[in-house]
Amino acid sequence: MSAPVVELSNVRFSWSVDSPIVIDIEALCIANAERIFLRGPSGSGKSTLLSLLAGISRPNEGRLQVLGQDMATLGGAARDRFRADHIGFIFQMFNLIPYLSVLENVCLPCAFSERRLARATKSGGSLQAEAVRLLAHLGMADGELQSRTATDLSVGQQQRVAAARALIGAPELLIADEPTSSLDEDRRAAFLDLLFRECELGQITLIFVSHDASLGSLFDRVVSFAEINRAGTSWLGKPAGLS
Amino acid sequence: MIARLSIKSLRNRKVTASLTVLSIALSVLLLLGVERIRHESRESFAATISGTDLVVGARTSPVHLLLSVVFHIGNVTNNIGWESYRAIAGRPEVAWTIPLSLGDSHRGFRVLGTSADYFEHFRFARDRRLELARGRVFDDEHDTVLGADVAEALKYQVGNSIVIAHGAGEVSFAQHDQHPFRIAGILTRTGTPVDRTVHVSLAGLDAVHEDASYGADSDPLAAIIREKHQTSATPRAITAFLVGLKSRGTVLSMQRRVNEYPGEPLTAVLPGVALQEVWEITGVVEKSLFAVSVLVVVVGLSGMLVALLTSLGERRREMAILRSLGARPAQVFALILGEAGFLTVAGVLVGIAALYAGLFAGRTWLESRFGLFITVSWPSAHELGLVAVVAAAGILIGLLPAYRSYRYSLADGMTVRI
Q: In a 3-state reduction of DSSP, which class is residue B102?
């Protein structure tokens, strides 16, 4: 097996020097192309962990490696570039830039990453073609739909556009933060199917965060955030192990 | 890329963005308009007379003499005697003189009595001399030569006959209709008060007044006296005269000599010096106008600041998305700064365009109403400097919302509190 995509050991993090530790993880290892379900109640610090993985924040101590890169040693700009090059992100809702069209939203990551631009161009022939291909794969083949403003879409359509945007240029790691919680049950299943298929095609590692334990069975592995995080309290002040 | 995002985001907020551009444009228009009119009026004044070393008239303030004689603003009440004029004109330092006699009008246009030397020696702008568009200069006391505006406004042709009136008003009850003038020539446009002047010979003007004062048709004796006066051809008095010297170096001594002339109290004015005095008087008004227009620019830019700051709150989600895509906080900063820059530059450009549209549309009105001759030229270095200061101020103001969004994006990261 190849090197792990994500590797944490004894990572501790607090927002500032005198605020309480919100993340204290002894070990977490995620293998290449693995589909991980990270479960935990909202407000338990999951988003903080994702910020660390994405390089928005830096751990106070411990070792945090993503794709073999030690995130603690990278500067701010380098971490931003790393995120642009290697990580796709899907939020819970309102993923899209409201003043861009669907197609422009999908192409946006390639504006921040030459690597992803090169990969997308190579895969689709052109950036535009690759975006259209991805949208079609995600059930959004309609050209009229693609030229619409992002905010004119239904929530389900918006999430699929967000997925296409996270997938363009084939980043190695896809992080989805409660991407299905604004979808109803049918759409949720359909959305997950699409996501899994794309991840499999691109050999993309998926970290899927949700408080909805019923989805866990669809993944390779379920990680309970409360179990791996030893920090006693969340940053909201609630006990972490509330679930 | 960031620039394209800026523009698209602004397009998404069309109404606020265009109102912001409009307010900046209007403030720039006001600022440039005030400066332009100030500059153009000075240019226009300075171009009115050239090559004249001294303006000599009866004792009065230099500014008053210059304004009334050269610019036809206000009236000179005292005349100077013909003998005084001849005495000074005959001095060896003097190269030429032009006698000027004012006080009559023709349908609102000033009548200037002068000699043929006027067409020979009068210079305006940068040493340009008067030229005839049609006809010829006056030969005798029955001829008149019209400025371009007079002929155009009253639709006069060479050969037409006109009557002049006493006083400078548009309507006059004392018409000198016993002595009509024949239009001998029409001058080309000069962009100076000459365009709005009816020129007659001094002899012609004198004949008019004698006709009037002696009641030509009712009194046979008056006709005889008039006959005598006309043949003598020496006017009794003139309003002022222009002096050209052989050497500019003698101008100050000549001025002193005129001011100390024993025959009667006279004033000699150096046109440039008197103009400088005029600018000192108008300077206060100009400065306060400029200050007001600067304040209006500040108001316009504050409008932009308010618009950008209020938009930031609802755009924190957008910033978080951009951050998740790998945008650096500096790029988020640049995005907002770019919007401020775009709004300011657009406002400045629209303002400049409006200024030129206004100049083209309003130049004839300014000319006929205020005698202000506007030449529509490219922006001067001074104006470009002003505009650059406005643009820089706009971008500087943009630093504030840009910095706030930068702080937001650092603090929020990818988590968004709505």
A: strand
